[in-house]
Amino acid sequence: MTRAVTRETLGIEGAYAAPGTQTERALAELWSERLQVRPVGVRDDFFELGGDSLLAADLALAVDLAFGVEVPAAVLFTSPTIAALAEAIDRAGGAAQ
Amino acid sequence: VSADLADPDLHASGRIQAEWRRLRESRPVHWQPGPGGGFWSVTRHADVDRVLRDHASFTSRRGTLLNLLGRPDPAGGRQLAATDPPAHDQMRQPLQRAMGLRPAGSLAPAIRAGVRGLLGPGLTGEPFDLAAALVGLPLVLTGPLLGLPAGDWPSLARLALMCSAEDDPRYQVGGDRDATLRQAHRRLFGYFVELVRRRTRSPGNDLVSLLLAEPEVAPGTVVANCYSLLLGAAVTLPNVPLAAVPELARPDRYRWWAGRPDLLDTGVEEALRWASPASHFMRHARHPVEVSGVTIAQGDAVVAWIGSANRDPAVFTRPEDFDPARQPNRHLAFGSGHHYCLGSHLARLTLRVFFGELFATCRRITVLEEPMRVRSTFLSGFTRMMVALEPTSGRCQ
User: Fold this and answer.
1) What are the DSSP E strand ranges found in chain A?
2) Closest CA to B243 of B331, B345, B177, B337
3) B364 forms bridges with which residues in the sheet?
4) B190 at A interface, C-beta within 8 A
5) Chain B partners of A64 at a C-beta cutoff of 8 Å?
6) What is the ipTM, given to two decimal places?
7) Which of A47, A89, B5, B225 has a CB 3.0–4.6 Å from the CB of A94, allowing a cystine?
8) DSSP β-bridge partners for residue B128
9) CA–CA separation, B222 vs B215, rounded Å?
10) pLDDT band, very low/low/confident/very high, at B1 (cuts 50, 70, 90)
11) Chain B residues touching A72 at Cβ < 8 A
C-alpha cells in the first residue's frame, strides 16, 4: 500500500478549499483513494494532482456507480475539479449510494 | 560523429535509412548519450527480435517509446503495451478472446465499402492527396470493429494522429507537443467513456460489448483497450500503402503486381516490411545483459529499431528492393514475442482489401511531387502524397 502524498509535495499553489457538501466530501474521498493524495481541495485540478486520462476514465465510470448518475465525461476531462463535478452530479439528481 | 537518432528531423528527411545501414554494419549495438540518460540502439534483425522477445531481460513497464525517455510512463503496468508477462498475458487474453468471437472476415464487406469511399474521390486522374485520404483508413477498420458512428470517424482519426505524431507541426495544437498530447488524450478517453456507457446500457455485437461481457474486465480497462486499438490502427494502416505507392509508381511494376492476384498476400507482407510504420519500440534492461558482445547495464534504455531490422541484408536478399513476391519475409513490422500486434490479422485483412480495391479500380498511379514524411521518431509515414489515380476504363468517367 503506497502512502498518500500531500498537495504541498505536488506543488499545488492554490489555497486548500475543504469540501462543503455531502457530494463534495464523497468525491474528495474517491479522489484521495485513487490519486493517493490527501487531502484534496474542491478547486484542485485532477490532472495537477497526478491524475491522467486513464485514471480519469476509471474515475468517471466509478462516479456512475457511486452516485447513481452519469455525468458527461467532458465535465471531468475539461473542468477537472471536485467543485465542478459535484455541481454536475447534484444537478443530475445524484446522491452517494 | 554519429547522427542523433532521437531527432525527428533525421526521420522526416529519410536520412535515417543511411544512418541505420551504417550502424548495422559498424556499430550494431550503439550508445547515444543525451538528456534523459541516453539510450542504446540495436539495428540488426537478430538483435531487434531478441530485445523485443526477451521480456525476462528487457521490461516494457518504463515506457516503450523514445519520446518517454527519462520520464516514467504513466501507463506502466496499466496498459497492455506498457506491461510485462505474466500480468501482460492476463490482460491480453480477454481482449484476444473477444476479438476472436467474430470471424475477422465478417468485417470485410464494411472495410471494402469504407475503402471505396476513401479511394472514390481520387479516381479521376486529377491530383489527389492520398495521404490525406488514407487518414481515414484506420477508422474503416476500427469503426465497424468497435461500432463507432461514422460521423465520429474524422475527428477520431485526427485525435489519433495528435497522439502518435505529436512532434509534427501539422498535427499540433498551440504549437506545443505536450498540449497536443494532453488535449488529444482527454478527448479520446472522454469519448470512449461515453461509448462504454452506451454499450453497458444497450450491448450490441461489437467488440466493446463483447469486452464488457468478459467477467474479469473492468469498464475502465475497456476504455484503455479502445484507445490502444484505435492508436494501433492509426499508426500502422495508412502508412503501409503510402510507403508502397512510390515503389509501384513505375507503370510496369504496378501493372505486374496488380495482374498477379496470387501475390496479394506476399505483396501485403512486403508493403509491411517496406513501410515499417512503427519505427521502434523501447525497453529497459532489468539486469546487466549482453547483446551481440556488448554489455548493457541494468536500467539502461534500449531502442529496437524495427525499420532497420526490416532492411537487414543478413535476413532479406536485396533488402532495398520492393518485391511483392518476396518469400520468406520474416519482417518485424508487427513486433515480436508477447507484445506482437494484437490486431495484425485485422490489419492484414484491411490491407488485402485495400490493395484489391486499388488494383480493381485504378490502372496506373503517378506520384506528382516529392511526398512529405511525418516528423516523428516513432511513426514512419507520410503527411502528404500527391498522386494521380488513373481509373480502370469504364469507371468514374
Assistant:
1) none
2) B331
3) B390
4) yes
5) 197
6) 0.93
7) A89
8) B387
9) 12
10) low
11) 194
- Yes or no, beta carbons of B194 and A73 under 8 Å apart: yes
Nearest to B220 among A57, A74, A76 (CB): A57
Give yes or no for A56 touching B (CB within 8 A): yes
Give the ranges where B5-119 is alpha helix by DSSP (H): 8-12, 16-26, 45-53, 87-101, 108-119
Look at residues B179, B186, B232, B243 and name the one whose alpha carbon lies nearest to residue B374.
B243
- Give which of B167, B130, B82 is closest to B369, Cα–Cα: B130
Look at A54 and B190 and tell me if their CB atoms are within 8 Å: no
User: Would you state the pLDDT for residue B387?
Assistant: 97
CB-based contact A57:B220 (threshold 8 Å): yes
d(CA A6, CA B79): 27
Given the C-alpha cell 500480468, which residue does it identify?
Answer: B87
Q: How far from chain centre, in Å, is Cα B345?
A: 13
pLDDT at B289: 98
**Nearest C-alpha neighbor of B289 from the set B42, B98, B82:** B42
pLDDT tens digit sequence for A54-78:
999 999 999 999 999 999 999 999 9
Rounded to whole angstroms, the Cα distance separating B355 from B248 reads 12
Residue B291, CA distances (Å) to B5, B248, B395 in order:
19, 37, 55
For B214-220, what is the mean pLDDT? 88
- Rounded distance, CA B397 to CA B393, Å? 8
Beta bridge partners of B386: B129
What the block records as the C-alpha cell of A58 is: 476509471
DSSP state of A37: B
Q: What does the pLDDT read at residue B210?
A: 93
Q: What CA dihedral angle connects B189, B80, A30 and B212, to 10 degrees?
A: 70
